[in-house]
Each structure stands twice: as structure tokens, then as C-alpha cells.
């Protein structure tokens, strides 16, 4: 930009040159590169390359192995419990989480109505229920039966 004085537009000083001269071409016409593919063909080609290449190298142990996916809703499937982690002697206590804030011991006992219960503890902080509790059962088998109820719906909560 040329500097002007007095707010008047001054005459541009300089030389007018052609675009080829400005870009530094030696006088030869600029080469035109024609794309061989349009953008859709390029995207399709990239997709085919990524589809054909496996990002997870196959190991010999996974070849021919059939993976069976669950065919029933989660609530109707049985729950596998590792009985080795359940104590042989008491107390047989289960943690019960995601409880509504208005739950009390009676309602929780009704939820486990078919299982003998010794005690229900619902911790509070500053007079407000925390949303979880502990249920103590009579024996090991009762605890296992209660653990089978994992992910059951209780007052519209899982």
C-alpha cells in the first residue's frame, strides 16, 4: 500500500506485470493437472481400502472361533455369580444401590419378600437417605438368591 499525504489519493507508483510474471513462470503456459477421480470416487476408494484392511490383526487362536451373542433381554437371562467370592460364614450382606430417596426398610423387605432377611441398613447423612443400603441375609444361599436379582427394576430404577 502506498503512503499518501494530506488525505488525497496519490497516484499508484509501480509497474503492472502479468500473473505469469508475478508467479515466476518462465513464459511457458501453466500446467493444468486434471483430477483422475472426483471426490465421491476418492471417498469410495478410501472406504474400500479401509474395509479390506483389518485394523485388528487376526491371531491363530481367534480363527474359526464362533462368538455367540445374547438372544434374550437382559432381565430374562440368568446372572452368573462367582460363588468362590461369596463367604462361607456370615455376615451375608449385599450392597443395594441406585435406590429411590423415598425408600424405607419395609419397602426394601417387600422387594426381597421370598428371601429371609436379618437386617436392612439405609445410611443417612444430615437426615437424608444416601440412595444405597445394605441387606443382611440369614444364610449363604439367601445371599446367592438375592444376587441373582441384580439389575431387577425396583420402583422404576434398575
Automatic annotation (TrEMBL):
Region (Disordered): 1-20, 48-83
Compositionally biased residues, Low complexity: 50-62
Keyword RNA-binding: yes
InterPro entries named among the record's database cross-references: Nucleotide-bd_a/b_plait_sf, RBD_domain_sf, RRM_dom
PANTHER family, per database record: EUKARYOTIC TRANSLATION INITIATION FACTOR 4B, EUKARYOTIC TRANSLATION INITIATION FACTOR 4B/4H
Molecular function GO terms recorded: RNA binding
Name of the protein: RRM domain-containing protein
Protein keywords: RNA-binding
Organism of this sequence: Ciona savignyi
Residue span, RRM domain: 92-158
Amino acid at each position: 500500500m502506498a503512503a499518501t499525504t494530506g488525505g488525497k489519493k496519490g497516484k499508484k507508483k509501480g509497474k503492472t506485470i502479468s500473473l505469469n510474471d508475478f508467479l515466476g513462470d518462465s513464459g511457458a503456459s501453466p500446467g493444468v493437472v486434471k483430477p483422475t477421480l472426483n471426490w465421491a470416487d476418492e471417498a469410495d476408494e478410501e472406504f474400500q481400502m479401509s474395509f479390506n484392511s483389518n485394523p485388528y490383526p487376526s491371531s491363530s487362536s481367534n480363527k474359526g472361533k464362533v462368538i455367540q451373542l445374547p438372544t434374550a433381554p437382559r432381565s430374562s437371562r440368568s446372572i452368573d455369580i462367582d460363588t468362590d467370592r461369596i463367604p462361607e460364614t456370615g455376615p451375608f450382606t449385599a450392597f443395594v444401590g441406585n435406590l429411590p430417596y423415598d425408600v424405607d426398610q419395609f419397602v426394601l423387605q417387600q422387594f426381597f419378600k421370598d428371601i429371609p432377611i436379618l437386617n436392612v441398613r439405609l445410611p443417612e447423612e444430615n437426615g437424608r437417605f444416601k440412595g444405597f443400603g445394605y441387606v443382611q441375609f440369614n444364610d449363604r444361599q439367601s445371599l446367592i438368591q438375592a444376587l441373582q436379582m441384580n439389575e431387577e427394576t425396583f420402583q422404576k430404577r434398575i
